[in-house]
């Protein structure tokens, strides 16, 4: 992302909506065994002929990552996401594979893990060793344009208490290697074993943030101070705040619903930062406890409200979030999309609930993988829950001539 308004203009400043971008990671699936397959480099090479670097490799060769160009409107972001998901799926099909959106591999893998060919991945193996065994997980990352890094790190303070709720909303990893792990987001548990990965600490300034990351790098608990793996971080290359806490959702409409909620939260926090509020000094242990509870129970249970320490249903926390950010949602035309996302959660649950329902209905995990693969790239699936109007075909039916922008160079590559 290269341009955008200062989110500190706030929900009453009538500024254009800050630019949004999405990154999603997917598993490549063998259609026979439904295990993950380490052919990522071949799939990426095929996809690049169509969309350039909007499809790229990831830590493990059984994964690919897709990226959208930055967009202001949720409908346009949705179009881009469906298009780039489709490009990745088409490239995978050409290699005899499927694409599946799940936070962890449902049916395990064929053969040994193959780490992607990137200097940072090799450095991570050298530094963390066997801690990276089984680190095969897929996330969604949301980028929101920021005016400067100082504002970005202080906005992160305001986001910390809400991160566990985002875990619960996006939880989509109950199975690993053919086993129900008893958690809604086992991906969150896997990530929690690292010394400097998870919710960011409270910081009182950019200088504080940079001194802390430098100390963690020197301790070797962090690989690179410029690229911390915290769940909220200023992007090291571009003027965005990156929110990385979510499992990848199966449906594009859900990713975009999360994205507009997160943008409204960033805009609201930015307005507070501009007025001198550096954010609540929420206890780090309470935030981690809230993460664990959200990872275990997902959307269906109660969670720890990290602002108060109270145990509240996730639906109640979500209603509080909407009220907190409602002015920003309304100003940027995102309220209906956010409410529709929460309605879908209320009606059918988070991804983990849907995976388990699919398993119980059909009694075989292969069917869970098939359902996930269908939802990941089948555009028809995104029309469910009243979202036909938000789909590219739905807009064409209304006479909208918007065409997704595709091709190389539309959004810059982000590390991580």
From TrEMBL:
<dbReference type="GO" id="GO:0005524">
    <property type="term" value="F:ATP binding"/>
</dbReference>
<dbReference type="Pfam" id="PF04107">
    <property type="entry name" value="GCS2"/>
</dbReference>
<dbReference type="InterPro" id="IPR050141">
    <property type="entry name" value="GCL_type2/YbdK_subfam"/>
</dbReference>
<comment type="function">
    <text>ATP-dependent carboxylate-amine ligase which exhibits weak glutamate--cysteine ligase activity.</text>
</comment>
<dbReference type="InterPro" id="IPR014746">
    <property type="entry name" value="Gln_synth/guanido_kin_cat_dom"/>
</dbReference>
<dbReference type="GO" id="GO:0042398">
    <property type="term" value="P:modified amino acid biosynthetic process"/>
</dbReference>
<keyword id="KW-0547">Nucleotide-binding</keyword>
<dbReference type="GO" id="GO:0004357">
    <property type="term" value="F:glutamate-cysteine ligase activity"/>
</dbReference>
<dbReference type="InterPro" id="IPR006336">
    <property type="entry name" value="GCS2"/>
</dbReference>
<keyword id="KW-0067">ATP-binding</keyword>
<comment type="similarity">
    <text>Belongs to the glutamate--cysteine ligase type 2 family. YbdK subfamily.</text>
</comment>
<feature type="region of interest" description="Disordered">
    <location>
        <begin position="381"/>
        <end position="416"/>
    </location>
</feature>
<feature type="compositionally biased region" description="Basic and acidic residues">
    <location>
        <begin position="381"/>
        <end position="403"/>
    </location>
</feature>
<keyword id="KW-0436">Ligase</keyword>
<protein>
    <recommendedName>
        <fullName>Putative glutamate--cysteine ligase 2</fullName>
        <ecNumber>6.3.2.2</ecNumber>
    </recommendedName>
</protein>
<dbReference type="InterPro" id="IPR011793">
    <property type="entry name" value="YbdK"/>
</dbReference>
